[in-house]
Amino acid sequence: MAFPHRPDAPELPDFSMLKRLARDQLIYLLEQLPGKKDLFIEADLMSPLDRIANVSILKQHEVDKLYKVENKPALSSNEHKLLACRAAFLFSVDLVNADKLAGRTRKYKVIFSPQKFYACEMVLEEEGIYGDVSCDEWAFSLLPLDVDLLSMELPEFFRDYFLEGDQRWINTVAQALHLLSTLYGSFPNCYGIGRCAKMSYELWRKLEEEEDGETKGRRPEIGHIFLLDRDVDFVTALCSQVVYEGLVDDTFRIKCGSVDFGPEVTSSDKSLKVLLNAEDKVFNEIRNEHFSNVFGFLSQKARNLQAQYDRRRGMDIKQMKNFVSQELKGLKQEHRLLSLHIGACESIMKKKTKQDFQELIKTEHALLEGFNIRESTSYIEEHIDRQVSPIESLRLMCLLSITENGLIPKDYRSLKTQYLQSYGPDHLLTFSNLRRAGLLTEQAPGDTLTAVESKVSKLVTDKAAGKITDAFSSLAKRSNFRAISKKLNLIPRVDGEYDLKVPRDMAYVFSGAYVPLSCRIVEQVLERRSWQGLDEVVRLLNCSEFAFTDMTKDDKASSESLRLILVVFLGGCTFSEVSALRFLGREKGYRFIFLTTAVTNSARLMEAMSEVKA
Amino acid sequence: MDCYTANWNPLGDSAFYRKYELYSMDWDLKEELRDCLVAAAPYGGPIALLRNPWRKEKTASMRPVLDIYSASGMPLASLLWKSGPVVSLGWSAEEELLCVQEDGAVLVYGLHGDFRRHFSMGNEVLQNRVLDARIFHTEFGSGVAILTGAHRFTLSANVGDLKLRRMPEVPGLQSAPSCWTTLCQDRVAQILLAVGPDLYLLDHAACSAVTPPGLAPGVSSFLQMAVSFTYRHLALFTDTGYIWMGTASLKEKLCEFNCNIRAPPKQMVWCSRPRSKERAVVVAWERRLMVVGDAPESIQYKQLTIQVLLDRLVLRRLYPLAIQICEYLRLPEVQGVSRILAHWACYKVQQKDVSDEDVARAINQKLGDTPGVSYSDIAARAYGCGRTELAIKLLEYEPRSGEQVPLLLKMKRSKLALSKAIESGDTDLVFTVLLHLKNELNRGDFFMTLRNQPMALSLYRQFCKHQELETLKDLYNQDDNHQELGSFHIRASYAAEERIEGRVAALQTAADAFYKAKNEFAAKATEDQMRLLRLQRRLEDELGGQFLDLSLHDTATTLILGGHNKRAEQLARDFRIPDKRLWWLKLTALADLEDWEELEKFSKSKKSPIGYLPFVEICMKQHNKYEAKKYASRVGPEQKVKALLLVGDVAQAADVAIEHRNEAELSLVLSHCTGATDGATADKIQRARAQAQKK
């Protein structure tokens, strides 16, 4: 059932090196404060740290106690304190000050990850503790979540850049790319779209040029790199996910590559933390599957497993001995995983196969295809009136806005009013954020249409004329989704039922209704090896200045490396996109590697924009 | 034959020496050398002369002249001494002339007489004046040792990294020591001094009395002491005309000699030729020179490295020669040619008679994009010489915009620095410049600058959001950004204000801002919220319970759940809750209360704007099939099938679907035919389908 790769597909580079690098660096930092020490760690860094160095490694290097930094100072007896934190480090200031008040003097070391900002030092100075602490950087910017998925674990990137216009993480991205090119060779072919993509790329090139060229002689392992801003394609990220891995993420939230399955999944009274990656053989076979296939697959698997267990019956003693010593453990392991995923499926089915979910998906598809807009709008309104879920309601509103080039003024006002009545007036700020980010906007009134614009729209013969008029009249960031969809053929024409078991194209990740825009762009550019012929799409994406190609004439790139492609998502990627590109890779004999600032989904995007008091 | 040995004189048993002139000095001295302070640099470096009028009568009004000559007496520089009285001169290993003044200030000059910098030897020295001073060289660099008028020693082992050490007191020392010198043992600088018949060794921790091994008896005073250049050997001259020579560690005697001259010598120095095994001490009196020597084990001499040699050439401005050597030795560019060129450029910028344009062009022509050359370093030098415009021109050649920023800031070109920082893409750098600008400009100008730099502005805004909320407000005010100001006050009403009055006031400010921003929607919504807050407060007072901070919807629901239907309806009217919402919330609340009677009454109060399917759904959610069925019968034809399926009446749903001849409905019902009893129904549907197809 899991599709095998083509025999000529290239091998993936070994990314475990990144982990070792981060671990060694951490150990080095720990050893800077010899003796027993306590480690205070910011909540956001907890899971990534866990993936790099487990408790026993920390203990080996004399970390006595590990504290998750909450907003109150913890009491500890050790002489040394290490504080590992992100840019927000006010906690540490409080910690040190609390100690000072209590008259304790200790050695403090503040470790900033992935990088120390000037502002950090300044705050320490302003708080009057700059002299009390020593600062260091843990340049841990790339966490390999899986064999083909690297995460920078910077969920704040999305809000900081796309809402606040804060560019400080771009440098971090450039540094991460620099690290990759140092370890795995430079990338001979580069493409990108989006303002942030362009800036990151240029900064990275600068870093490469400043370097003495130690890496230049290296044979590149990765043939292409593609950088993409999240705001180039909000639509895909806003859709409900229906491939297994995405659905697990939407339902249970995968955090740093692992998920907490609650009692309803484990069918015991305990929760279980499960690592989800290619090493989980069962998961690996279903992760990219449309959910409708998963259950059938799992039950088939269960039957096979039973059959293997059953083989025992006819065995003599010697065979039995062999079976127990060699196969049983593997079977049991598989058994355990199988029952976990079956449990997860049941739990998802319970939540998702209700009428509500069907209706929801139907509405989403209608929005993507652009029909029955009124009906969809009423659906959203009802959704809000019934207080189904603040995040879901918001997501649907955004999807409507982007696919329709903004809401018509009447709907914009009434939906917002309804929303505020349902979920509280503080969401006024959320709406202001969404508008700024271009996620939820209002169509400008039609009368701003100038003569030139109307002339242009007359030249357009197809049905999109109306939409283009809208596009002209809208002053805010325009999505022009409908025209792009048509140009790139995002809505597949289906004769009869779409066979989700044997997908034809990437649309299978959305039940055959929609090819993810981001993935389609990657596919098209790779096919052409440039943006040639995509000018119209680029224009419609408002990215004319930010679509770039850069090919170095490097004959060192082997044909194998040329089929290894690194796709960089700035602002987050979804598991659906990962699945879609994995599918594309299998079809075309590519292997995709994903680098994302964080794994995201619709709920995370909406939460990043929400502004509700805690 | 005898011409080879004729001028060789015996020295001890096995060594000979001779005296001959290597070259004659080119100088034309106007002063008697004896009237001058003289300092010759090590390794055949330059010689400095300063006529010392302060030693003589105080009335000398003439300013002294500082002359610098090469080792062969070629004049390099001559300048009028305008500072205070000088006690001692000496050259550092970098060939910088250190002039120690009486007040403890040390002035540093280059070998061309260019003033470099000055530093002080500390307050204690300033108060007690300098009695004597020595410049000495160790492997860490060049140091200065001072003897003050209070007979205390202060020293710095490396003037390049100035750390002053005040040495411990010598017990019972009432007058200046008869002689003293600096030593360097185990990487620590020490002072050896003689007081009467006693020798004391001072390091930074202690003062200890020492005795040289095998010292002849009868010494009542030491007149002169000399330490060799490498600090390995020491010679002592006593008042009995006796010379002791041994290791500087005072652990071993090498030899002794009695010259029978009791007059104190003017000078005593160690001398030996490179790679020679011979060591000798030369003692000089007014009219007599004596060489005392022995010939024990070999001495290691540190050779000048090629880098030091190049540095020396550069210091003498012999750039072409230095470059030729680099090329001949095939030194890598960064270590060799680029470094020399950079030095040349730094010299070039000091040529004040050449215009900025010409200097900049000349430098760029020579240097081009030579790797390892930092234009910003050269520019820094130009700025150091007061040539700001030239510095800016040179910075233009610096390819890394980030490198330009620190100097631009120093030159107070902060705005240019800001755009360069932004160009570099390094947000940290931008931030550094921002804080500079913030301190440098008044607030208005600062904000104006930000306004033209969106990247910097958002960076600063982010900072303010976390650190300086009030500034954020000012920032919005300055830009007339009423929309953001409104949001700011809304946020404040939730975060900062506890009291309801304060919150309402903050909201009022927000609403005003929204009006100014022409955002009527937000203004109205904010006013509604103010009304709601006040009402919620009243409700809490009158009815008890928790109302504050609930959404409008939840407020109405809470009222209904509390049995205050009238109030809920009033609320709905006052706040224009749409009918649909009101029906949904009333339906949900009544079902939650399981008040089926009231629900039925409500359902009949008028025609439901949301239809009756929701009634069925909600009743089923409360597991009340009986009530659900009541409403199922009222559901309109379009949703009839769904309603019947919800209440589990598959058979009737099939009938309706067949009647509607609706394919979608038929398959929906069929998908619900799962129970054993539904077999007949499924057949019925299949038949209906077949019939429909026939038609």
UniProtKB/TrEMBL annotation, chain A:
Task: Name its GO BP terms in alphabetical order.
Answer: protein transport; vesicle-mediated transport
Q: Its membrane topology, per UniProt? A: Peripheral membrane protein
Give me the Gene Ontology terms describing cellular component: clathrin-coated vesicle; late endosome membrane; lysosomal membrane
Pfam families assigned to the protein according to its UniProt record, in alphabetical order: Sec1
Q: Where in the cell is it found?
A: Cytoplasmic vesicle, Clathrin-coated vesicle; Late endosome membrane; Lysosome membrane
Query: In terms of one coarse class, where is the protein primarily found?
Result: cytoplasm
Q: Matching InterPro entries, A to Z? A: Sec-1-like_dom1 (IPR043154), Sec-1-like_dom3a (IPR043127), Sec1-like (IPR001619), Sec1-like_dom2 (IPR027482), Sec1-like_sf (IPR036045), VPS33_dom3b (IPR043155)
Keyword Membrane set for record:
no
Q: Does the keyword field hold Ion transport?
A: no
**Coiled-coil segments:** none
Q: Where are the transmembrane segments?
A: none
Q: Which keywords belong to this entry?
A: Protein transport, Transport
- What PANTHER family does this protein map onto? VESICLE PROTEIN SORTING-ASSOCIATED (PTHR11679)
Q: What family does this chain come from, according to its entry?
A: Belongs to the STXBP/unc-18/SEC1 family.
Q: What is this protein called?
A: VPS33B late endosome and lysosome associated
From TrEMBL, chain B:
Q: What Pfam families does its record include?
A: Vps16_C (PF04840), Vps16_N (PF04841)
Query: Where is it localised?
Result: Late endosome membrane; Lysosome membrane
Q: What does the record list as GO biological process?
A: endosomal transport; intracellular protein transport; vacuole fusion, non-autophagic
> What Gene Ontology terms describe what this protein does at the molecular function level?
actin binding
Main subcellular location of this protein, as a coarse class: membrane
Q: Name one GO cellular component term.
A: late endosome membrane
Signal peptide per UniProt: none
Tell me the ranges covered by the Vps16 C-terminal domain, including all copies: 373-691
InterPro entries registered for this protein in UniProt? VPS16, Vps16_C, Vps16_C_sf, Vps16_N
Topology relative to the membrane: Peripheral membrane protein
Q: In what residue span(s) does the Vps16 N-terminal domain sit?
A: 4-302
Describe the subunit structure.
Answer: Core component of at least two putative endosomal tethering complexes, the homotypic fusion and vacuole protein sorting (HOPS) complex and the class C core vacuole/endosome tethering (CORVET) complex. Their common core is composed of the class C Vps proteins VPS11, VPS16, VPS18 and VPS33A, which in HOPS further associates with VPS39 and VPS41 and in CORVET with VPS8 and TGFBRAP1. Interacts with RAB5C. Interacts with STX17, MON1B. Associates with adapter protein complex 3 (AP-3) and clathrin:AP-3 complexes.
What does the similarity note say? Answer: Belongs to the VPS16 family.
Name-wise, this protein is: Vacuolar protein sorting-associated protein 16 homolog
What's the source species for this entry? Prolemur simus
Q: What is the lineage of its organism?
A: Eukaryota, Metazoa, Chordata, Craniata, Vertebrata
